[in-house]
Amino acid sequence: MQTNEVTLGALERRIDMAVSLADIEQGVAERLKRLSRTVKMAGFRPGKVPMRMVEQSYGPQVRSEVIGESVERKFNECVREQKLRVAGYPNIEPKEGSAEGMLEFSATFEVMPEVALGSLADQTIERPTFTVGDADVDRTIEVLRKQRVVYRAVERASQVGDRLVIDFTGRKDGEVFQGGEATDFAFEVGGGQMLADFDAQLRGLAAGAEKSFDLTFPADYQAAELAGKTVQFEVKLKTVEEPVLPEVDAAFAKAMGVENGDVDKMRAEIKENLDREVARRIRARVRDQALDALIAVTPLEVPKAMVEAEAQQMAEAAKRDLANRGADVKNIPVQASWFTEQAIRRSKLGLIVSEIVLKNALKADAAKVRARVDEIAASYEDPTEVVSWYYSKPENLSNIEDVVVEDNVVEWVLAQAKTSERAVSFEELMGQQSQQ
């Protein structure tokens, strides 16, 4: 056998291989001989089928298998000898005009890139700072109250925040248009559910009122047949309901999971939850900046095979997520190409982080793993049960260990880069979304 390696690009390689036909024929003969001992055919006892008939029935399949195994074996030997790190699977094709007594093939593939970590000395990581206060607890309680709002019918004129129940009919050129008619339709005044001009027409009206008015749809309205068009609406206001928020009392505290109804305990638990969420958001923000810094200082070309595999995994994950939400994924054409940019970023980070972990022995420390498990468990009703689940099987801890290793990498980056702090508002911090 002979081999020849050719560089086609930064990461693309080709290996030309020549496999001896004599070796292949010998391999075919040996395998057919072994097969003849057990093969069954009508009219013959096992092991007594004539070799000629065995060759006729199984020869092509055996020859294909022997050739494939020979080429794969030679390819793997060459890769080991030249210490190549192959990305993905090679594309192996036969060559035309093979030399006498030889069967020649070409294997085209990509290799993993060398990761040369850049200097982080000029990179700055900004750590947001925020301390949860009573006002933040109050704001959270208001959100919780609004989530439990009930509505009560009133006789007065409607105002912002009320819920209206209406019948309406909309006509364009005298004909009811698609989606222009509804009965017992409910919406919140000022809630943004309806077009602003429609919403405004129903403010200040009491139950039982009827009103007709013209409305012009926005030029960029989603329904092209209505965009920029003026239509006529007839509306009957059936009920006006005002929102009634629950009082912050023992009953409310019990609804929030505080069994004894202690409002102060409820506030303390809300603050603990906010503290955990704030810490999580700050950690995610710092992590994203650290990973961005690594990408910025480490130019890296990633193998197409790696990107394609990552994009495919992301597409499959998206399908599973949609299915879990009740969507019929058979009718949703989720394509791996939609995730290419994210896949490139993830692939780069995977290579860079692996290099840092390897060179700096940044393994998952048992104490840090336990601390992260305890942090996760604290948000559940029975933390001990959650902790027990994580430690019941090694595979349950794998994701946590990966997170801890990533935390170690972030700490390593912070030690190399410049850092600063900036006080942020609650709204700004809660509005920040992690890229990962």
What is the averaged pLDDT score?
91
Poorly predicted runs are: none
CATH class of the largest domain: Mainly Alpha
Number of domains: 3
Quickly give the CATH architecture of the largest domain. Orthogonal Bundle
Instruction: Enumerate how many helices there are, as a single number.
Output: 12
What is the C-alpha radius of gyration, as a whole number of Å?
34 Å
Helix content: 40-55%
**SSE class:** alpha+beta
CATH H-level homologous superfamily name of the largest domain: Trigger factor, C-terminal domain
What's the CATH topology label of the largest domain? Trigger factor, domain 2
In sequence order, what are the helices and strands, one letter per element?
EEHHEEEHEEEHEEHHHHHHHEH
Report the count of strand segments.
11
Percentage of residues in strands: 15-25%
How far is the N terminus from the C terminus?
48 Å
Largest β-sheet summary = 5 strands, antiparallel
Shape: extended
What's the short story on this structure?
By secondary structure, the protein is an alpha+beta fold.
